[in-house]
Specification:
alpha+beta, 18 helices, globular
Amino acid sequence: MVRAGILTHLKRSLQSAAAATKPFDKVLIANRGEIACRVMKTCQTLGIKTVAVHSDVDDRALHVRMADEAVCVGPAPSNQSYLNMEAIIEAAVSTGAQAVHPGYGFLSENCKFAQLLEENGIAFIGPKEKAIEAMGDKIESKIIARAAQVNCIPGFDGVVEDETAAVRIANEVGYPVMIKASAGGGGKGMRIAWNDAEVKEGFKLSSEEAASSFGDDRLLIERYIDNPRHVEIQILADSHGNCIYLNERECSIQRRNQKVVEEAPSSFITPEVRKAMGEQACQLARAVNYQSAGTVEFLVDSQSNFYFLEMNTRLQVEHPITECITGVDIVQEMLRVAAGHPLSYTQTDIPIKGWAVECRVYAEDPVRYLPSIGLLTKYIEPPVSGNTPDTGVRCDSGIVEGSSISIHYDPMISKLVTYAPTRDEALDHMEQALDSYVIDGITHNIPLLREILRNKKFRAGDFSTKFLDEEYPQGYGGGDLTLSEREELVPCLAVLHHKKTHHQSDGSFEYVVSYDSTQLPVTVVVEGGSHSVVIGGVKTTVQNTGKNYGSLYNFNLNGDQTASLQHMHFDGVSHTVRYASTRRVISVLTPLQQSYMNLMPVKEPEDNTNLLLSPMPGSVSFVAVEEEDEVLEGTEVAVVVAMKMNNSLKAPKSGKIKKVWAKVGDVVEGDQKILEFY
């Protein structure tokens, strides 16, 4: 035992010494937002100078402020800035950067970019050009995977030439089918089709989306596996013949084929399946001489059969949860490999220590999953002061209070991660972290994330990639307060209201709290500075713990129960609060004030039945009709592009077009008029 302990200590010491070797003096990060900040943190730890690139609208972004140097590479549209290879390479040359880390998205899987860097004597912190090209082409990658004896989904291994060929191939493969961009990723250029009509529509939209997102409109078609899990394997490989897998990540909670909640490990995967998936992932990596961090994605059916989906030849968005359960800094290993060093670890060094959960916090409407743009008027991340090696909170973000969420870029605000010894503990910590996350000024998806975490099926590990569609087919707009939630929120808000509107004199004060069409009489009792609330004869003592920050208030109920709420706004009548992560407007009035309020007429909502409104901010890329045209219900009449996604707008009813309010090229707001019907 002593000898084994000494050897283990020696191995770790050697790993630490190897990791301490600075692979580069200066690195340029060809990205923005949270991932640019994430890469910079590891560079700073290693003493590596960093260079940021930015568009003109990002000149005061957090990643620009974190870097040692910054270079503007163009205007706001990403194809003129973050996809501008010549400008980025010129920035690297002019600043003396020895290497470029691409992050994810943008140029991270562009083999031409990797080649141009090499030609300019600059290291690309990622795999070699040929591996990117082979795995980036979903058609070629399937052929290579089959040759490497990796399980593959039945489908057509070729380019789908046109709409007619798409229908023919779909019938040969068998419905349902997945139409997907050959050069795609991140859910863009993907459509599920259940019949010929949906194939025709999906082919058109996917090819347009693929062309705008990747500059490549080629599509492939494969069998769609119904109710699968999406499980991926993180791998690391170097130029010395070493390749290891860092266990799996469960990524089945998705909307629009983009991940929302991830966890590591997966509660569904057995050690035997994990080993088989990991070994196949490494087989594929070796088949293309892969050298860097990469992720091999699989679909897993209910019988634990797994099928190769694609390989992402870059740093994955959700890599932090793998880092939490293995202790491996994946960015550090990418830097080392790019500098020609061997990996710091072997397969036997990779543990599964505890559980980690990641929530992607998006600036989007959780009902329609549509992006929200605007200024972050309040932004306070959950506290990390109580972190230990086994339990904690990690928030990877690239914004601060006052930052803007732009129409030009991805709407992700941050990646919120919690880790703990068990899954239940990690999920509990995530609920608390979400409840203490203060974001105001834009719409965000925290209410949906919080609801997912307390969903019984999710908690039981009983879900597939169809979870959100099945559990929340209309999205999540918030639910009515449960009895237990009411017993927490109402006393806390009544005391908070009383403190904001009265001096601290002793006495009993009557109020009516109105929420969810319910009017609840309450009494706030103040005795010697202490507060209690009586509801229906039941008395609850309420003490503000003083552990408040920003708009977040923490309370203690009856001496042993904790509760928290975010107080966003008070107009003298109604309080806008965020409780259990859901935004609610609750009025607290005296009985007399409430009696007057009950006499006020209710404002009727506007009648928009004759209007087609833009569901989100974006730019109009296509208008199919003119005034006086006749259209049928369900016909595509316009397309609005937002954050690189094509959103098809269809006629809400059959009829004649009275007025066309928007033209191609117009930038529109959410709920702005596009068409008007008679």
